[in-house]
Amino acid sequence: MKFPRQPVEPVDVNLTPLIDVVFLLLIFFMVSTTFTRERELTVELPEASAEAAVETTERVEIEINAEGEYAVNTQRLVNRNSETLSKAIKDVSKGDTKLPLIITADASTPHQAVVTAMDVAGQLGFSHLRITTRQPE
């Protein structure tokens, strides 16, 4: 007995739901990712037991590595002169001395480098000065 052949319909895969799921996953991972601040200098912070202060968005941050080299808001300075540091701070702050100034120095930084940064900040008129530390383990 011969059966009549029924026409075979082509298999169709709908990609729209798959694309929707991929976009939702992409958005989920973008929102849930933690972003870290990249630093120009490698700094090992000294320890302190006080609680961290509330962060503000606008600030001037001076980083000092173990060799005493400076970076102002992640821009590395060409030398260690106080005049260069002063000019960099003026450029970043745009003359606003009410901005908080944060000094982040390596634990083995020469004391003179930190004192120079504090002295330059004081000469420019900055009064909100903080030194970054880390919690003891």
CATH architecture of the domain at 60-131, by name, is 2-Layer Sandwich
Biggest sheet, spatial arrangement of strands: 3-2-1-4-5
Q: Give the overall form.
A: elongated
Helix/strand/pairing category: alpha/beta
Span of the ends, CA to CA = 85 Å
Q: Helix and strand string, N-terminal first?
A: HEEEHEHE
Summed up, the helix count is 3
- What's the CATH topology label of the domain at 60-131? Nucleotidyltransferase, domain 5
Residue stretches low in confidence (pLDDT < 50, at least 5 long) are none
Beta-strand proportion: 5-15%
Tell me the radius of gyration.
Answer: 28 Å
Helical content stands at 25-40%
Number of strands: 5
Q: What is the C-level CATH assignment of the domain at 60-131?
A: Alpha Beta
Oligomer: single chain
Return the average pLDDT rounded to an integer: 81
Main pleated sheet = 5 strands, mixed
Describe the 3D structure.
The chain has 137 residues and is of the alpha/beta class. It has a domain at 60-131: Nucleotidyltransferase, domain 5, CATH 3.30.420. Helices cover 31% and strands 13% of the residues. The protein has helices at residues 16-32, 82-93, 111-124; strands at 60-64, 70-72, 75-76, 101-105, 129-131. It has a five-stranded mixed β-sheet with strand order 3-2-1-4-5, covered by helices on one side. A hairpin with a 2-residue loop joins strand 2 and strand 3. Helix 2 crosses helix 3 (111-124). It starts with 15 loop residues before the first helix and ends in a 6-residue tail after the last strand. The mean pLDDT is 81.
